[in-house]
Write a structure and sequence with these properties.
With about 325 residues, this protein is of the alpha+beta class. The chain has nine helices and 15 strands. It has a single domain, classed as Deoxyribonuclease I, Chain A, CATH 3.60.10. It has a six-stranded mixed beta sheet, covered by helices on one side. A hairpin with a 2-residue loop joins strand 8 and strand 9.
């Protein structure tokens, strides 16, 4: 079975209000990429992945005049994808949903939000002190994680799709304000990861086979404020101390070193500036799934040999998004 996570930069802007793809020469929300170029690139990438299920981060919007499911069904039909069924969860007001696109001939999937006294539903509030006033603060998800109950030919499987809070200091007017916003955002991102880890612990205690995947906007050594808090959100989610751990080989690699070559899942650029690369996207598995010897791939157009050799796929990956797919192949 092949399961992937893919953050598609501003997927929403490629559809009209009826969920139909806009394939013309107008500019997409990607820098210097038209809607036709991005749409065609995405068609090539999704077809090449040929996954059983793809957790799409920044999926098209659901709102009074738009529908994530309708848009993704049109997208799948346009490119003849076998991943043609859609599950969405709690909607949000960012125009960037989390959605699962899957092959209904190989798996079934439903939104199945959970709740626990220590970890409420992801559309609720989690109370945790994130500043210095000794009072718990209400933490919310701007993009609530998508909890999926999946049934495969081999039995049940749990998925949690995640788009954690960005730590970027958007809207800052000066250096001091940027620092304040960045620290505040990191506190909120860490609190979200604590909340998520409590849900993970709930599933591990129940003996569930679990995959947690998506964009965590985080990783060890990613910014200068990590030393202030002593750890990254990624480390919290994976598990610490005596906790039962999740595993992702790319996360394991960067946790074990701070220098040298690192895996990369995202490549972005400010106008006129050099490209900046980072490891932001992960597919983490529970211990019983790790024992099945799964294989991970990051489809980076320059780092993955097969992607680089395939000129059409290489160019499609560069046009489609500022993130690249992370793929898990596992024999269930």
């Amino acid at each position: 079975m092949r399961i992937a996570t893919y953050n598609v930069e501003w997927f929403n802007s490629l559809f009209d209000a009826d969920g139909v793809l806009i394939e013309d020469g107008t500019w997409s929300s990607r820098c210097d990429v038209t809607k036709a170029e991005q749409t065609a690139g995405l068609g090539v990438v999704f077809a090449a992945m040929d996954a059983d299920a793809v957790m799409i981060i920044e999926a098209p919007d659901t709102s009074p005049h738009r529908d994530t499911r309708k848009a993704l069904e049109h997208f799948a039909a346009r490119f003849g994808l076998r991943t043609r069924a859609v599950v969405t969860g709690f909607t949000n007001d960012t125009r960037q949903e989390i959605a699962l696109l899957y092959d209904p001939d190989t798996v079934t999937a439903v939104h199945d939000p959970q709740s626990h006294p220590s970890a409420p539903r992801f559309d609720g509030q989690f109370h945790m002190g994130v500043d210095l006033d000794a009072h718990p603060d209400p933490i919310v998800w701007s993009k609530p994680p998508l909890e999926i109950a999946m049934t495969t030919a081999s039995g049940p499987l749990r998925l949690i799709g995640v788009h954690a809070k960005s730590k970027a200091a958007h809207g800052a007017m000066n250096t001091a304000e940027a620092k304040r916003i960045a620290i505040q955002n990191r506190r909120k991102q860490l609190a979200q990861c604590v909340w998520l880890r409590k849900r993970i612990a709930q599933h591990l205690a129940a003996g569930d086979d679990l995959i947690v995947l998506g964009d965590f906007n985080d990783g060890p050594g990613l910014d200068e404020y990590e030393k202030l808090f002593g750890r990254s959100g990624l480390e919290i989610v994976l598990g610490e101390g005596d906790e039962e751990r999740l595993y992702d080989p790319h996360a394991h690699m960067v946790l074990g070193r701070r220098f040298g070559a690192m895996p990369v899942t995202a490549r972005s650029q400010q106008q006129g500036e050099p490209y900046v690369q980072a490891l932001l996207d992960y597919v983490m598995v529970s211990p019983r799934l790790r024992a099945k010897s799964p294989e991970w791939q990051i489809w980076h157009p320059f780092d993955h040999p097969d992607c680089y050799k395939n000129e059409m796929l290489r160019e499609a990956l560069l046009l489609a998004s500022d993130h690249f797919p992370v793929i898990l192949d596992i024999n269930l």
